Every structure is written in structure tokens, then in C-alpha cells.
Amino acid sequence: MDAIFTRTSVRSYEDKPVEEAKIDKILRAAMAAPSAMNQQPWEFYVVTDKTKLEVLSKASPYAGMVAKAPAAIVVCGRKENLLVPELVQVDLSLATENILLEIEAQGLGGVMLGISPLVDRMERVARIINLPADLEAFTVVPFGYPASKNPQQDRYDAARVHYLK
User: Where would a tag sit more exposed on the chain, N or C end, judged by fewer CB atoms within 10 A?
Assistant: First the structure.
């Protein structure tokens, strides 16, 4: 539970590769996410190639940090053979949150970059990583060892909680 209360968006990274064992744990956490009717619409592309990371950093106006990250995970969703297609983005969001929490738990830092539903960004990312036609890009999560980290803000607001008794 500590990761929930310590996780922040990290956009600067040490020049140090992330161990494959840590990446594996992050991907396992992603696939442990809840999924509507257990459809598991996700596919994950792990990018560690510096040239691809540099190109991915230009996929969105807010993606500059990807160029300096040692790794990024592109979360993608299937477009076919879905039980509940209306809930794919919910499933992918849950998997992405698990990615971010496990990144924190592994002593790393990362940030989620908004790609979907912005079609131009989705198409750019798809071209960069050569996605097959039955997949679409949802988000890019650059990550690595944090060069710096700020404490998490307490966002709890009791005025937004409503009890129905």
C-alpha cells in the first residue's frame, strides 16, 4: 500500500538501465489488473532502444522525457475479439495504474503520457512501434531510476466523499 501514497509522476531519470527482473515484475503487475469479464484486452511493448525512445519522445507535445528514459512501456489495446469493447479503456487504465504502482514499488519512477483517445498521437505511436492493425496505442509510460523526486501531495478532500446511510 505504500506505493499508493508515495507514487508521483517522475520525468527525469538517471542514466542507468532498468533490470529485466524489475521490468518483468512491472508487466506481471499490469496483467494482474481487473478486467471487465476478464477480457484482458492488453498488449505491452517494452521499449529500451535509445533510437526508438528518442522518436517516441516526439509522439506527443508532452513526451520529451521519453528520450532520456532508459525504458518505456507502451500500453496497447486489442480492437477485435472483445467481450465488452466499451470497457477496453477502463481495463487499460487499470493495467496502467498497476504499472505505475509497481514502478514505485521497485524503487523506480515513471509517468503516464496521454495518448488515447487523441487519434493523431495514437497513430504516431502505432507507426513508431509498428503495431499490427488489430492493436491501438493507449498510453506511453517512460520509467527508470529517478534523478529527482518530489513528495506526493495529499489530495484527500473530505468534501468529495458522500455517505449514503
Answer: C
